[in-house]
Amino acid sequence: MITINSDGKIMVRRCLVTLRPFRLFVLGIGFFTLCFLMTSLGGQFSARRLGDSPFTVHTEVIGALESRVVLRKMSDLLELMVKRMDTMVRLENGSELHRGDKGHIIDRFPPGAKLMEKIQAIAQNVSDIAVKVDQILRNSVIHSKVSEGQRDQCEVPNDPKYPDCSAKVEWMHARWTSDPCYAFFGVDGTECSFLIYLSEVEWFCPLMSWRNQTAMLPASKPLPEVQASFRSNLSHLLELIGSGKESLIFMKKRIKQLATHWVLAAQRLEAKLKGAGRDQKQILIHIGFLTEESGDVFSPRVLKGGPLGEMVQWADILAVLFVLGHNLKITVSLKELQSNLGVPPGRGSCPLTIPLPFDLIYTDYHGLQQMKQHMGLSFKKYRCRFRVIDTFGTEPAYNHEEYATLHGYRTNWGYWNFNPKQFMTMFPHTPDNSFMGFVSEELNSTEKDLIKNNKASNMAVVYGKEASIWKMQGKEKFLGILNKYMEIHGTVYYETQRPPEVPAFVKNHGLLPQQEFQQLLRKAKLFIGFGFPYEGPAPLEAIANGCIFLQSRFSPPHSSLNHEFFRGKPTSREVFSQHPYAENFIGKPHVWTVDYNNSEEFEAAIKAIMKIQVDPYLPYEYTCEGMLERIYAYIQHQDFCTTTEPSPLMGPPQPARAPTSLAPNTTHLVWPHNASLGSEAWPPFHSFQGWLAETGRTCTDACLDRGLICEPSFFHFLNTQDAFLKLNVSCDRTESEMNHLYPAFAQLGQECYLQKEPILYSCAGSNTKYRRLCPCRDFQKGQVALCQHCL
């Protein structure tokens, strides 16, 4: 008789009690095996999808070979399980015989023999499947031998049209694993995968003759031409902008407030164009400074008196582009940007996965940096389509990377090697950039009369919503003088207690909604600035509501050399007052600029202001119609992708002899009226005038002195020896160099200098050594961005 000790019985009973969970475990093994096989085999059958690179199959086959090893291990594991279960069943059978004598047979478990049969069947199936997988994989490897052999024989081509190919292949050998985007495009470490990538995704190597052309990236196709038509309903634009940020809510409110003005302006422009057709542009607007990745310091401050100038401008830009009838995509997050551009997964080293689907991209410096980080070589390929909203402007000396680095002009915001006209400013700081601007609400005649009749003769409003602006040293002195003549009001933000920086005699209203702030301006006689913020929209808004703007004169002028605010900005411009545009383009009686440190001058200005009354005034270029005209002209005529000007990589220009001539009884050059060349150019060549500036003067100032605007696109007419001769300048020696002040004449030594680098043509910049040759043009009254025949 078989005897089993008590420990053995306990072990067997535990085994039997856990038999049902064990069955579930076996079923789980089977299900996992099936899923594993489907995944492995599915990868083989889908490896030759249309558009996949041929070496994708090679990579997946290697993975499947590893899968085959796993299957064999699973089969061995199941066989081992069968052997152990066989021993356990035999042991249980003996135990049951022993318990049978006592009538305690446990019948709630299935017989051990049936369970063994099921386990053996699963093991056999796994073994059979492993054999079949082995056969499929062997056939797959044999089938790809031809193409594999061909790929193994790839050699780096020696083609003079692709001089960088060999170096790029070497770079790929060392760095292809540095960014997952290379594997996304099919790079697997083989020579052929490098060459295919460098010829079809990038463009450093010639195309491989044996390659299937259908596997390449889709060729860039011209976007469908659709005629643009003016829009009169802005509700869809509000949907496109979205919500979730206080900055976006502010922008939407502004668009709603000005909606009627935009519609009327569009109707007037449409009448001027007389039905002229124009293409609808696909435009991406990426507001980089509002993205979380850039910090978005503006949104939290919207309701706390923070700066709103940038958001005012962006709201107006969105309205203009939409009203003009263009198709817009608006992004304020990096994720949205990547999705719209077609950025491949990885760290941004590779080009886009699709041709850029946008004709134009409007962004700011933050957005520009984000796109450079994620577009790879596509950033250079499509950089002519960018339009950069740049509040303070970027001068050519800071824009040219090599020149800026060599001559101390490099900053955190410059060196993009763009055409300087691609930078679009809030005010017309320098004609080197394009003037984008913004708008202020235009009043009708009834509203103007109402304002004039309700003006308080002794009420002043201070320009400054943040308490920090009121920390200006010496403010008590000139505010004390002002308080003798006027009641002073402030709109300084505070939460619970009055800001201590605001003097007790100032009536502080706190931060006001836009409509209430406008009502305050319509009652006030004076709007006074403390010297900061620079060049904001509020002074123009105050002047449009019938206020006189009083501001401080800076001596010495503020610039990047002596003032922290301008340090690092890509401009050498000197600011002589808080709002140079208001001083130079509007002036008295609407704008008074005085020395706040001179009490007598300040008090005399206050007395004079008390005696005069002004009408509400708004320059045409800051009306809805003026901005619509300007942006319409830019979109229609500014094309930096097909320019005939040499690029920074093409070497020095070879100027042709321009048919300029000396104007009668004057000392400047003009474009002959009988010249046929340039009639279709923009700006038209007949608006050109060439002047020799006085020593130490910028071309911007030299043209303004003559009632003209500097036009950098005309510089190439003056960048010739012939231009010097026609201006009666005698050159003992002529040199061509890379310098943002050239073309110029140095009287000491009678030396003439020509410009070697076209994107360094600059209206800005001066030196007491040179008299600069300056290209000027006429302009429309109230619209300095456009010449008299530019619309």
UniProtKB/TrEMBL annotation:
Which GO MF term does the entry hold, naming one? alpha-1,6-mannosylglycoprotein 6-beta-N-acetylglucosaminyltransferase activity
Do you know which InterPro entries this protein is assigned to? GT18_cat, MGAT5_Glycosyltransferase
Name where it's found: Golgi apparatus membrane
Kindly list the GO CC terms recorded for this protein.
Golgi membrane
The record gives the membrane topology as:
Single-pass type II membrane protein
| Listed GO biological process terms | protein N-linked glycosylation
Would you tell me the protein name for this molecule? alpha-1,6-mannosyl-glycoprotein 6-beta-N-acetylglucosaminyltransferase
What is the organism field in this record? Sarcophilus harrisii
